Amino acid sequence: MGDSLGLIGKRLLLLLNDGSSASAAGVGTDPAAWLRGTVRAVSVIGLESPGVEVFVEFEKSPCRQRSWVQMYGDEVRAVLVESAIVWVNCSDPSLSLPPALVAAATQWPALLFKPLVDRVGLGSVVPVEFFGPRTLSFFPNGNSLHTFETEKDMIHSLLLEQPALQAAISSWHRDSELQEILRKGQLRLPINKRTL
Predict the structure, then answer these.
(1) Does residue 62 belong to any structural domain of this protein?
(2) Is the pLDDT reported for residue 29 higher than 50?
(3) Between vectors from CA 110 to CA 103 and to CA 146, what angle results, nearest 5°?
(4) Does residue 36 sit in helix, strand or coil?
(5) Dihedral (C-alpha) 112, 117, 122, 124: value to the nearest 10 degrees?
(6) How many domains is the chain partitioned into structurally?
(7) Domain range holding 91?
(8) Which of 107, 109, 110, 154 is the most exposed place for a label (fewest CB within 10 A)?
(9) pLDDT above 60 for 129
């Protein structure tokens, strides 16, 4: 994703520098340290630009509601962007999953995030947010993840048993497709010169 316009409408996870000297690896995988939000605008076209800023509408952040964030600025330690839906194997005992998920199913759908900026050394750590409870988890690698195939998996028994979960995934998929159409397509609006 070299085009910053592709970020508009995407969900981000942001880890900002709070000035503490805590271990980067420990803080990086602490779900409470991450801010969640949606990109509403970008300042320049191209992610390679050192001055690229994103206007983020934050979720449940008492100190920030909306603000510009300089992606490569000193304040930013990590930026993760939503990427795809995956199945997480809940039966792996090495994973620390929410008990409700483990009890409910052997697999659970989650939103996979990919790093755009990583100054904390996440390396092979894989961040996901579970659909439903919206719990953020960090896995040591991608071994417990499996591709979510929309055509086939939208009729998976777990989703059929939980319509709210199916609706959340369907909504994300629909929004993702629409964002891609708008990003790649050409939009021409007729302008009536008499009303200008």
Answers:
(1) yes
(2) yes
(3) 90
(4) strand
(5) 60
(6) 1
(7) 4-184
(8) 154
(9) yes
